């Protein structure tokens, strides 16, 4: 899963980034409103964390511009403004959730997971397909009741496919959501991760449509 973090306070941005990377997300960081607006219109993100008090362009205006341009990624506002009118303005501008500073990191992560599930129309944090169970809250994978150890990148690929169960996902899309925007994106490495997942979780979990991509079937 790929997240855009928009925060101009360096220490807080680094703290959030560390937590999100540990949770298995690929994170791009912007520290001003103009850069943030450009990135979200050029790249595809699973969700965005947006601070309101930004240099260059205010977060509220950035959000309005995103929505006016048709950008549909869910947005979580971070703000030191805790008045109810600010929350109403943020939600009316197109935010999906609002978190007041200071906050606890586990709550931030839980809100992001909930937003991603709503986006993919997956109400439960626990995904099941055959004898494979994936708990997105704790990044735990079970097969036939036994825990399976995955690498961080294997976990990201599996999570993205489960969140998009029933939809064909191309190699390039998986690659885009696996790496940072300025990082290396070798789509052929996705095939390596898919093969590793099949060895650990069974050949039947992930379907391949030759030349087009991969899919986990939607639960019946």
UniProtKB/TrEMBL annotation:
DNA-binding residue intervals: 124-218
Response regulatory domain residues: 2-116
Keywords: DNA-binding, Phosphoprotein, Transcription, Transcription regulation, Two-component regulatory system
BP-aspect Gene Ontology terms: regulation of DNA-templated transcription
Residues recorded as bearing 4-aspartylphosphate in the entry: 51
Entry annotated with the keyword rRNA processing: no
InterPro entries listed in its UniProt record: CheY-like_superfamily (IPR011006), OmpR/PhoB-type_DNA-bd (IPR001867), Sig_transdc_resp-reg_C-effctor (IPR016032), Sig_transdc_resp-reg_receiver (IPR001789), WalR-like (IPR039420), WH-like_DNA-bd_sf (IPR036388)
GO molecular function ontology, one term from the record: transcription cis-regulatory region binding
GO CC annotation: cytosol; protein-DNA complex
Domain OmpR/PhoB-type as annotated: residue spans: 124-218
PANTHER family linked: REGULATOR OF RPOS, RESPONSE REGULATOR PROTEIN CARR
Protein name: Transcriptional regulatory protein QseB
Organism: Yoonia vestfoldensis
């Amino acid at each position: 899963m790929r997240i855009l973090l928009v925060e101009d306070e360096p220490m807080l941005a680094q703290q959030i980034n560390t937590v999100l990377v540990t949770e298995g997300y690929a994170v791009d960081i912007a520290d001003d409103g103009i850069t943030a607006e450009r990135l979200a219109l050029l790249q595809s993100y699973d969700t965005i964390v947006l601070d309101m008090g930004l240099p260059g362009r205010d977060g509220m205006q950035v959000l309005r511009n995103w929505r006016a341009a048709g950008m549909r990624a869910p947005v979580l506002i971070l703000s030191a403004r805790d008045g109810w009118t600010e929350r109403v303005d943020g939600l009316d501008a197109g935010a999906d959730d609002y978190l007041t500073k200071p906050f606890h990191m586990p709550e931030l992560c839980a809100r992001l997971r909930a937003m991603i599930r709503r986006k993919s129309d997956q109400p439960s944090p626990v995904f099941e397909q055959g004898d494979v169970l994936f708990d997105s809250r704790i990044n735990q994978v079970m097969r036939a009741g036994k825990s399976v150890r995955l690498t961080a990148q294997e976990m990201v690929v599996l999570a993205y496919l489960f969140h998009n169960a029933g939809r064909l996902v191309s190699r390039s899309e998986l690659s885009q959501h696996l790496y940072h925007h300025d990082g290396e994106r070798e789509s052929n490495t996705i095939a390596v991760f898919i093969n590793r997942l099949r060895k650990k979780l069974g050949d039947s979990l992930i379907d391949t449509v030759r030349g087009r991509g991969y899919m986990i079937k939607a639960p019946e």
